[in-house]
Records
---
Amino acid sequence: MVGGARLAGEVRVDGAKNSVLKLMAAALLAEGRTTLREVPHILDVEIMGELLRRLGCEVEHNERERILVIDVPSKPSHQADYDLVRKMRASICVLGPLVARCGEADIALPGGDAIGSRGLDMHVAGLERLGASVAVEHGFLIATAPHGLTGTQIRLDFPSVGATENLLMASVLATGSTVIDNAAREPEIGDLCRMLVGMGALIDGIGSSTLEIEGVEALRPVDHTVVADRIVAGTWAVGAVMTQGDVIVRNAVASHLDIALDKLTSAGASVEVLDDGFRVVMNQRPTAVDIVTLPFPGFPTDLQPQFIALNAIADGSALVTENLFEARFRFVSELQRLGADVRIDGHHAMVRGRAELSGAPVEATDVRAGAGLVLAGLVADGVTTVTEVHHVDRGYAHFVENLQVLGADIRRVG
Ligand code: UD1
């Protein structure tokens, strides 16, 4: 890409990657055809589709209509192999539904994004409290509950998104009631709760940090629309600010991005909330803004690289603190190749804004880092080439095409 263009125009956001993958797993909880709408055309959806097929489901994805239909057999198989799980750590979200539905799940231990050591201890401890036996054998996590799961009290050490989701999906079919305390409150979890309720699950406290689940005997398939992707929406917003542009983001939920949009206002942008999204207008060089990542409703770690890119060209200095994934700063060495002035000390990054970055070849190290590097390339002088863009394809549908529509000088090569 050649830097310098101003992003202007309209872009529409699809359903959230971090929701749809869990909703696809949740479909396993009921026999029959579940329909998901607003499903994004991204690599991770294909990987999850392949995983569900291996479990015995039929999966049809109409990419143009953004509709995904999953037909779940009466007896799904229960093994998720390493070749798929290593491609996508989120595969672990079939653990809860499979134990609940089949009484057993054998999941290869995951790889996925290179963004820090992400433990599964809370997933395992929660399943054990629900009565499952869990062991690790030959690289597989094996969870068994031949006589079903039993409702219980679970208090998470930390509001982990993945653990909350797995335990929620496990407990909807357990006998009796389960309380998950210190549950994560991300909008994607609210979305999963709403889908489960549509399937017949009984869940109280949706959107809060205490979820109360009354187990039911069986669930039914559902037709559900995936919540909008707040991280993609936020990425467009940051792009508008960095390029001093004017972008309307449609089909987005501004209230899911409160802190991030407030930060953009502090950086000097004007943000207007619309019925179906928001508009971001910027007419000056942004002012640097401090960031501290935290579980929702705190600032999302998935927008941290994009905000480091913004700070790299801002007026002033900013301190960015990463509290969720220690290795999320790895991409900074790539950003430095574009001339960014960033110093890392543990989980803090001090960014001193520069008037200009200069184009260079850089490598995407994970999906959000890739997005951050593309945004940086859009404002760098000359040509920037981002390699390993398959990471970006994992989370951003038609990213290059959308950027072109907004006026960026960018193309995909190879
Ligand atoms: C999800 C999102 C990811 C986002 C993250 C935080 C998906 C597919 N991914 O990841 O994009 O950045 O939420 O919003 O939805 N942890 C443990 N033990 C556990 C579970 C987690 O120590 O049992 C730690 C992890 O190592 C990490 C932190 O908790 O440091 C947050 O992890 P978690 O909230 O579980 O994130 P994910 O579900 O993996």
Note: Residues 313 and 356 are 6 Å apart (CA to CA).
---
Amino acid sequence: MKKYFVIGNPIDHSLSPKLHNYWLKENKIDAIYHKKKINQKDLQTTILEIKEKKTGGINVTVPFKKSVIPYLDKLSPEAEQTQSVNTIILNDNILVGHNTDISGFTKAIKDLSFNIEGKKIFILGAGGVVPSIIFALNKMNVSEIIISNRTRQKADDLKSQFKIINVIDWGNIPKFDMIINATSLGLNNEALNLNFSEVGDNKLFYDVIYNPSETSFLKEGKKLGNQSENGKLMFIYQALEAFKIWHGIEPEINTDILKLLEND
Ligand code: ATR
């Protein structure tokens, strides 16, 4: 039986095994998907197990999306441009790194009744998933991307990677059409401590977090009369793309799948 893994640290929270194992069963594929907590020093050995065919493929999450790159032979253009890999496969004995967070985010946004073209986007945070979000937003022809991160240097580093973004100090809230919480604040029900009272209504509040399903950031946006959306579909779509890459099958998204990710 082929084994697949999601690697990260921490990894306990990952719901990827639920999703992939459901789809593996549905599609009668003789394989199993586990989560594996690893340290940086184990990274190379873990990746090489794909080459040795002990592992069928690997999903990568925080904090290894960039640090896996030196151990791969080739990157997809999206992974190359974001310097972020979340899916690894062996193709003709070549280890290839893909980035499915980009299409995950793009598809999730396209499912919403919110036309993003020409819109002004404000991103909170500068962590692992932000390069993929910037890349996707840029492809969707937004008019402006503004980033703010508690540690300003990390946002400035992103600016050297993506010249198109503007960086502002943490605590400032510019005018925007869509705001994205890409920080980890909210995972444990913490509030962001930012003042949204001047924001107004009819904007889109988007949280990358999907568990809890409604963070205080989303609650606050909604209270002010804004549309709100969590990161559940983004998560499902990135997994769907990874599944397609590994198994050549587009799995189904149904109500069972949506339920699978609740109450965890
Ligand atoms: P990583 O930084 O390892 O990629 P991540 O979960 O992808 O991890 O990113 C965490 C994000 O949440 C970062 O933008 C982080 O800000 P810092 O760069 O300043 O650490 C942000 N974050 C975490 N706790 C926060 C807090 N209490 N206030 C504001 N931002 C916070």
Note: The chain is about 35% helix and 20% strand.
